[in-house]
Design a protein that fits this description.
Its EC number is 2.4.2.21. By secondary structure, the protein is α/β, with parallel strands linked by helices. 45% of the residues lie in helices and 9% in strands. Strands 3-2-1-4-5-6 form a 6-stranded parallel beta sheet. It starts with 13 loop residues before the first helix and ends in a 6-residue tail after the last helix. The structure holds alpha-ribazole-5'-phosphate and nicotinic acid (NIO).
Length: 341
């Protein structure tokens, strides 16, 4: 992807100036590999020659899904509020990683089927979506509200980097449905094991998701598709991605589900992808293919299949490292090192 060509980031000459600076650092040409591309992307996102990251915000968007009552997950629906509590208490993987990396952690309840947890941000639309296998997961009004909630949340958060996380039993199903509708690939190529379904479980998930696609076939515009196939957390996250990109914040994408939110945001507001750094390729089967379709090359490939923002947090240190190299490495000229002929 050529980031400088995207309208959201158009900044005449900046890409060439930053590339020139990178190429004159004291190293063989191109020797910092994809860290160089990352530094360039961060510069283009911020529209400056010396990008700098401050007060990174990891937001976990949480919600329940009507589909989780249809046996599409290996785990029960109650796990969503239980994990929200665990995240707030500091015991979830994302809590540990956010703490360790110095990332501010916000849990945004976009529609968990339980009372609002102490310490969660209240962006609740309803206690879980409707069952998308029998009709739209949410109304158009609810989808619009979720988008606006996500935008407003970013306005309230400090800093210039947003790391995406999510929690919602059944949400790989919503992500798979969105992938099918947004890419046009066959459903079977868009569905994975989620939390660990066996082959019979995947067959059941495929059958249920096939029903959801059939019953919601009339949805055409991106917002209609979002409402039909749902995920309050996914639609809210898409709103946050749109607002963050508009403010030139760096968006760090986690796994399969956050990719669904970003792809939805791109469908709603073409160009936002340019603000996105893809942290990792998830072990969720269809993720690699979707990344490829989006022209995204993720930083890490660790066989993660957790979500929560865990992969985004793990990849995070590469971003300040790229900024530091761009800002602080000497050039051949300043260090008196002989460049190649
Ligand atoms: C204990 C536990 C912690 C999690 N943390 C994230 N997820 C992940 O698994 C869910 C998606 O998979 P599926 O569509 O198969 O339900 C999401 O909540 C996602 O964040 C978890 C799942 C479980 C069980
Ligand atoms: O890639 C992800 O985000 C993912 C995969 C499986 C389960 N939960 C999340």
């Amino acid at each position: 992807m050529n980031f400088s060509e995207l309208p959201v980031l158009a900044e005449p000459g900046l890409a060439a100036r930053v590339q020139h600076a990178i190429d004159h650092k004291t190293k063989p040409l191109g020797a910092l590999g994809r860290v160089e591309a990352l530094a360039l992307q961060l510069a283009l996102i911020q529209g400056v020659e010396r990008p700098a990251l401050r007060e990174p915000q990891l937001v976990v968007f949480a919600a329940d899904h009507g589909l989780s009552r249809r046996g599409v997950s290996a785990y029960p629906r109650e796990v969503t509020p239980q994990m929200v509590a665990n995240m707030l208490a500091g015991g979830a993987a994302v809590s540990v990683l956010a703490r360790q990396q110095g990332l501010a952690l916000t849990i945004a309840d976009c529609g968990v089927d339980a009372p609002l947890a102490d310490g969660a941000v209240d962006l609740r639309i309803a206690p879980g979506t409707a069952d998308a296998s029998i009709g739209p997961a949410m109304t158009g009004e609810q989808a619009g509200r979720a988008l606006r909630n996500g935008m407003a949340l970013v306005e309230r958060l400090p800093g210039n980097a947003l790391l995406l996380g999510e929690m919602g039993i059944g949400n790989t199903s919503s992500a798979s449905l969105l992938m099918q509708r947004l890419t046009g690939l066959p459903l079977v190529d868009c569905v994975g094991r989620g939390t660990g379904l066996d082959d019979a479980g995947v067959a059941r998930k495929l059958a249920v998701l096939g029903e959801a696609l059939a019953v919601n076939a009339g949805a055409q515009a991106p917002l209609q598709i979002a409402a039909a196939l749902g995920g309050f957390e996914i639609v809210t996250m898409a709103g946050s991605v749109i607002a963050a990109a508009a403010q030139r914040r760096v968006v760090v994408v986690d796994g399969f589900i956050t990719t669904a939110a970003v792809a939805l945001a791109e469908a709603l507001r073409p160009g936002v992808l340019a603000a996105c750094v893809f942290a990792h390729c998830s072990a969720e089967g269809p993720h690699a293919r979707w990344l490829q379709q989006l022209g995204a090359r993720p930083l890490l490939d660790l066989d993660l299949r957790l979500g929560e923002g865990s992969g985004a947090a793990l990849a995070w240190p590469l971003l300040p490292a790229a900024c530091a190299l761009l800002a602080d490495m000497a050039s051949f000229e300043s260090a008196g090192v002989s460049n190649r002929d």
